[in-house]
Write a structure and sequence with these properties.
Helix content is 43%, strand content 8%. By secondary structure, it is an alpha/beta fold. Among the domains are: 119 residues, no CATH class; 198 residues, Translation initiation factor eif-2b, domain 2 (Rossmann fold). The strands form two sheets. The protein has a six-stranded parallel β-sheet with strand order 3-2-1-4-7-9, sandwiched between helices. A three-stranded antiparallel β-sheet has the order 5-6-8, covered by helices on one side. It is extended.
């Protein structure tokens, strides 16, 4: 409502909002008397007018206005999200953080967050169409068996450029042969390592101000050991030999001349090779051959050098017997043993795998099994499949004899299963399958263990490992 031009401020208030510009008196013509006045500020009245308008709204009206503005903002956010979902090709209402998800509750229709919305037109309560299930199945990651056996080591070739600068060339060669399984047998790996260490000792010269007993182990021997371990885990025999070698070095007096200390170490290496490898193999073969009687049937699994030696020794003594060779399905090393025995005039029956094992074991008088190592609790670590043969023979009441050198005994570790101490076969493993090289045979399935310390065909219980270890380590450390 327009003012009358005189704009009396004391007039009665009007409920109709008026234009602020209409309430300001128009200035009169400028005369001499007005020359000293300052020009009026431009539009000084809008703020008071707005304040007056706000004050005119009742609390109920203010609450309704705020509610309407909030609803308008929500509608704008919802429209923006719907537009973004449509642009991305996703059904509206599935975008993360929508109104239905704000409080972590259920969306409309009672569907949980993250569940797929059925296609339009599908019947309520029925499963989604087939292509929805296929899409979900394709998104699921495939299980990797190697992930569950990631703690089991596997042999691998270490590039020579990545080897420690202090690793001796002889040790480099042994590591590469171990990584490629060119050196697979535990005793063959032990002998190769000792011969390489012999060359390391011969080439060693202590730096000025150092002595062999304090410098050789941390700065020379340990880099060799670390490289070999990276190529392939240490077998029982290698670990025992390294422990005995370090104990021998630590016993040197600080004033011992270097040449004298090196000569003693070289003699010690030769002693281990001759006594613990060469003579031990001969003694075990002789003792095992003494247990074979005329007319016996001996069953063995795959190939082992001690079993071969025992059977050939028995044949040289003029005994008549026959042999059943049950081979490993993968390695086929038993063919080598069967060929050697047949060439020596021993009747041999060959089985290419473990199929039909029970009747073969029942026809035998004794079972010879070669071990890669024996734990402190008497369990034997051997080629995969050995435990099956031992358990079948024990259940059939057939004697099971384990052949193993004492250098392969472990005085500290115990084992009751095959997953803690084992290796993955690098040649027969893929992302979707793997094969373990060894298994664990419980001591209750072993009638006795034959080592180089028995004589006359005797053998020791598998649980008597610690007493044998104390007997065999006394001359090595002294």
């Amino acid at each position: 409502m327009s003012g009358d031009g005189n704009g009396a401020p004391g007039g009665a208030p009007n409920n109709t909002t008026s234009n602020p510009a209409d309430t300001i008196p128009k200035p009169e013509a400028t005369g001499p008397a007005d020359s000293t006045k300052k020009p009026a500020a431009k539009d000084p009245a809008p703020a008071p007018a707005q304040s007056a308008n706000t004050e005119k709204l009742t609390p109920a009206q203010l609450k309704a206005k705020a509610k309407a503005e909030k609803a308008a903002r929500r509608a704008q956010v919802k429209e923006a999200r719907a537009a973004a979902a449509a642009a991305a090709g996703a059904p509206a209402g599935q975008e993360k953080g929508g109104p239905a998800d704000a409080k972590g509750g259920k969306a409309k229709g009672g569907k949980q967050d993250g569940q797929p919305v059925p296609p339009k037109g599908s019947m309520s309560g029925h499963r989604p169409s087939v292509h929805w299930a296929d899409e979900k199945k394709e998104q699921e990651p495939k299980s990797n068996p190697l992930h569950f056996f990631s703690h089991v080591p596997i042999a691998k070739r270490i590039p020579l450029s990545q080897a420690h600068k202090d690793v001796h060339p002889a040790v480099l060669a042994v590591g590469q042969q171990m990584a490629t399984n060119a050196l697979n047998d535990s005793i063959a790996r032990l002998k190769a390592m000792l011969l390489a260490f012999r060359k390391v000792i011969e080439a060693y010269e202590s730096p000025k101000g150092s002595v062999l007993s304090r410098h050789f182990i941390p700065h020379v021997l340990n880099p060799q050991i670390e490289y070999l371990t990276e190529c392939r885990p240490m077998c029982f025999a290698m670990g025992n030999a390294i422990r005995l070698l370090k104990g021998r070095i630590n016993k040197f007096d600080i004033n011992t001349p270097e040449d004298e200390a090196k000569e003693e170490l070289l003699d010690w290496v030769d002693f281990v090779i001759n006594e613990r490898i060469t003579l031990a193999e001969y003694a075990i073969g002789r003792n095992a051959a003494a247990t074979i009687n005329d007319g016996d049937t001996i069953l063995t699994y795959s190939y082992h050098r001690l079993v071969e030696r025992a059977l050939l020794e028995a044949k040289e003594r003029g005994k008549t017997f026959d042999v059943i060779v049950v081979d490993d399905h993968y390695e086929k090393d038993g063919q080598k043993l069967a060929t050697t025995l047949a060439a020596a005039g021993i009747p041999v029956r060959y089985s290419p795998n473990l199929g039909g094992l029970r009747p073969k074991v029942a026809a035998a008088n004794n079972v010879f099994l070669g071990g890669e190592g024996i734990f402190a609790n008497g369990s034997m670590n051997a080629r995969s499949g050995t435990a099956d043969v031992a358990m079948t023979a024990t259940n059939a009441g057939v004697k099971v004899t384990a052949l193993c050198e004492s250098i392969n005994f472990d005085r500290d570790r115990v084992s009751v299963e095959s997953l803690t101490y084992n290796e993955v076969d690098p040649q027969r493993s893929a992302p979707d399958c793997l094969r373990l090289l060894y298994d664990n045979t419980h001591h209750k399935y072993i009638s006795g263990v034959m080592t180089e310390f028995e004589s006359g065909g005797g053998h020791s219980p598998a649980q008597a490992i610690l007493s044998l270890l104390r007997k065999q380590e006394e001359p090595l450390i002294a």
